Amino acid sequence: MKHSIDTDFSVYELLVKDSSQNIFSYQARMLQHWSSNIEQTIICQQVSTSIFVGFQQLKLFIPQIPIYTQLSQVAAEIWIFGLPCDRLPQIENIYYIPLKTNHQLCQEWFVIAHHDTYSRALVARQTTPYNFQSTKRSFEGAITFDRTVIRSIYQKLVQLITSI
After folding, report:
1. Which domains does the chain have, with CATH numbers?
2. How high is the pLDDT of residue 120?
3. What is the pTM of this model?
4. Which are the contacts of 93, defined by CB distance < 8 A and separation ≥ 6?
């Protein structure tokens, strides 16, 4: 029997519970830069792994379709979480995970990749009001290269998608 995602599930909480992580506070522009760096590295290094990405709202994924189409040629699979949008194309190896407004993940931005040759986690939670102007949204979070921490988050996300 398939289950739904627990509304309290939070990638952010999985990462920040480890007090050794450096917490940042930035607007969306810096997170876009870091996300792009992770995406480009996976493409350049041809890292074939599953990638988990939180877009909060799937409509925010639409401008990123070109880069994610490239990523889908390299990655084993890409799991994209966010509030539903009806204009999403079907792209090989990309799977959309629709959320509801009461899911904690709707407040989070994350890019998680874990592989023997490359392991990164960018995880942030929005600190501005939910309906705040998108270009001025602010986040607090962390970026880590700690394989042990990333492996734990990655495994929890794998369990999550296999249960839905």
Report:
1. 11-162 (3.30.870.10)
2. 95
3. 0.89
4. 72, 73, 75, 76, 77, 78
